[in-house]
């Protein structure tokens, strides 16, 4: 979908603060409230805007350990393993990567003991997983919350 400068500006403003009202957005882009509402409705219908959400600081919510896993899976079991992991409440995101049948997974847990339990019970014990490589985040400098224009 081709976006004009006004659509791009709306998306930038909503990326910064998704709670802006149509009136506030209209003031920022120089359109009427109704025109802004119609544009946002169109962006949602076209799938450019997937949803409106809130970004929660996981550390403030008690999730002190943030870890990434590259998980190699037997190809015939990739979908099943990915779906099972995606349904786990400690899994923040999961992506299929290029190369071997690899799942790149971001996990948030309360402490290292919970991380150990997750690794042993949710990864090492799963049929089809052939390799697990982990990295623990020491410090966050930037976190992507959406596509930047």
From TrEMBL:
Keywords per UniProt: DNA-binding, Transcription, Transcription regulation
Keyword Secreted in record: no
SMART domains in alphabetical order: HTH_ASNC (SM00344)
Pfam families associated with the record: AsnC_trans_reg (PF01037), HTH_24 (PF13412)
Keyword DNA-binding on entry: yes
Boundaries of every HTH asnC-type domain copy: 3-64
GO molecular-function terms, A-Z: sequence-specific DNA binding
Any one GO biological process: response to amino acid
One cellular component term from this protein's GO annotations in UniProt: cytosol
Name this polypeptide is given: Transcriptional regulator (Lrp/AsnC family)
Species of provenance: Oceanobacillus iheyensis (strain DSM 14371 / CIP 107618 / JCM 11309 / KCTC 3954 / HTE831)
């Amino acid at each position: 979908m081709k976006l004009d400068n006004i659509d791009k500006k709306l998306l930038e403003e909503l990326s910064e603060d998704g709670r802006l009202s149509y009136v506030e957005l209209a003031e920022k882009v120089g359109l009427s409230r109704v025109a802004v509402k119609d544009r946002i409705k169109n962006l949602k219908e076209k799938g450019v805007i997937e949803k409106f959400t809130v970004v929660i600081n996981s550390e403030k919510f008690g999730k002190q350990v943030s870890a990434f896993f590259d998980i190699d899976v037997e190809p015939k079991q990739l979908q099943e393993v990915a779906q099972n992991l995606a349904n786990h409440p400690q899994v923040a995101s999961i992506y299929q990567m290029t190369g071997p049948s690899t799942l790149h997974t971001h996990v948030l847990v309360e402490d290292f003991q919970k991380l150990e339990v997750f690794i042993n019970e949710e990864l090492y014990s799963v049929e089809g997983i052939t390799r697990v490589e982990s990295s623990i985040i020491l410090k966050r400098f930037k976190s992507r919350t959406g596509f930047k224009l």
